[in-house]
Each structure stands twice: as structure tokens, then as C-alpha cells.
Amino acid sequence: MSISYDAPVLVVGGAGKTARRVTARLEALGLPVRPASRTTAVPFDWSHASTWGAALDGVSAAYLSFAPDLAFPGASDQVAALAGRLAERGVERVVLLSGRGEAGARDSELALLDAVPTASVVRCSFFAQNFTEGMFADDVRAGELAIPVPPDVPEPFVDLDDVADVAVAALRDDAYAGSVLELTGPQALTFGEAVAAIGDALGSPVSFRSASVEEFVTAVVAAGEPAELAYGLVELFAEVMDGRNVATTDTIERVLARPATSLADVVRPVAGHTNGR
Question: How far apart are CA 245 and CA 35, in angstroms?
């Protein structure tokens, strides 16, 4: 059954990659939306619970994305605390963005579903857009991606627009209450295969190299990010890039009644824009 909301849908993440897409889709449906992050008019900061009250005031549903990642220490405690606040307010439709194969993320999923049994989890493989607008984008544009992941382990990169479409479906349909929706792209590719395909689309070669931990941490710090983030990413890569996430799922096709979007189809519009077409 499709749900419509008179009170705002809280979208935690503000202008983040998934949050802004979810916001745009809800607004296109004519639904009231309250984007919330540290820089929005109504601020929300995961690390400062004092900001949560105003963001939660009067909301009818919520989409939750956590930064930097649910696998990082302390994330599940913060999700549990926020889930409790949502439950106290009687908010029954909550969607949590989660990561596939991450033990820490699983703790956050369980915490949410324990507090709000009618919530949904959208559990995702690596985002295809990490190559075009996320953490790998600058390196891809420079012609080489060097990160500490095995060269031979494939990943079924998922399209963020597919993720947002599924998240909105979960917010608007009781059929997904209490569900964990595991999302992947239609094909698993190694990072080398992925960047080679992106290079072909861009018309400029892109190579992949399995970097050492030290090299990666140095590069992240040189880019202005804290060392803690770099080491957290190293641990995340080591956890999920061990072959556990190779299999694809048909969840996107089941929910959206269309195939999942391929990496090539994600990159094609970006390549056209880059090449001035």
C-alpha cells in the first residue's frame, strides 16, 4: 500500500550522495521533506545528540545515512540512540542505508529493527558513483586508482539512483516493513575491470593498482582527511573485499520492476558531459 505523508520526511545526510537523491524523489512526489545535516537550516549531527530534537520534531518518517560509514566504531550506538528517539515519537517508517558484508553495519541494522520493527534496511554493495563523484573520482580523473584492495576480487557496484529509488519505495510501501533489501549491480567486476571500462567511456585510460596501506594512508592525509578516516577505510576494505560480496542479487528488479543499472550506464552520462556532448 502506497503511503503519503502530511508531516515532513526527515532525510539525514543533507546534500550527501544518497540523501540528496532521496530528497529530490520525495519532493518530485509532492511530499514534505526535511533534509538534515550539520550545515542545514535545521541541523543534525550524528556526534551531537543535542541537535536531534529539532530535526526529529514532527516528522512522519525518516531516511538515515551515516557518515563516514556504519562499520566505523561507535556507529551502532548512535543509530540505536536515534532509533530509540524515533520510536518514542511513534515514527514507524524508517529506512537505514547500510553496507553489505559489514559486521559493524549489521549491529546498526539490528539496533534499528529492535527499536522500530517496521523499519527497513537498504543494504548496498560499493556505489558505482564512487568512481565519478565520490572517494575515487579525483584519482580516476588523474588516470590511476591506487587503493588497498585485492586486484582479483570482484564487486557488483550498485547505482546510487537505483538505491534512492528503492529507499523511496521502502518509505512509501508497507510491503517492505521489517525488511532487509540487499542491493547490488547486475554484474561483479574487479576494480581493474571497472576503471578500465570507465576509461573507455571517458576516452582516457584509467589504470588500477593495489596500493599498500602506508601509501593509501599518506595519500588520504595529503588530501586533507584525518588519518583515522584513512585507517577506518583500510579496515573496511579488508573486511568486505575478501570475496564475501561477489554474488549479485535481484532485489532492485523485484522492487522496481526493472533491471539494475550497470556500471557502464552509470558512467555514460558522465562521460558525455566530460566530453562536451
Answer: 31
Quote the cell numbers at residue 148: 588497498
Q: Tell whether pTM > 0.90.
A: yes
Question: In this structure, what DSSP letter does residue 129 have?
Answer: G
Taking residue 12's Cβ as centre, other Cβ atoms within 10 Å add up to 27
| Per-residue tens of pLDDT for the chain, all 277 residues | 467 788 999 999 988 999 999 999 999 999 999 999 999 999 999 999 999 999 999 999 999 999 889 988 899 999 999 999 999 999 999 999 999 999 999 999 999 999 999 999 999 999 999 999 978 899 999 999 999 999 999 999 999 999 999 999 999 999 999 999 999 999 999 999 999 999 998 889 999 999 999 999 999 999 899 999 999 999 999 999 999 999 999 999 999 999 999 999 998 877 655 544 3
Buried b / exposed e across 214-253, counting CB within 10 Å, b at 16+?
Answer: eebbeebeeeeeeeebbebbbebbebbbeeebeebbebbe
Whole-Å CA distances, 220 to 133, 195, 225: 16, 19, 6
- For residues 69 and 236, is the Cβ–Cβ distance under 8 A? yes
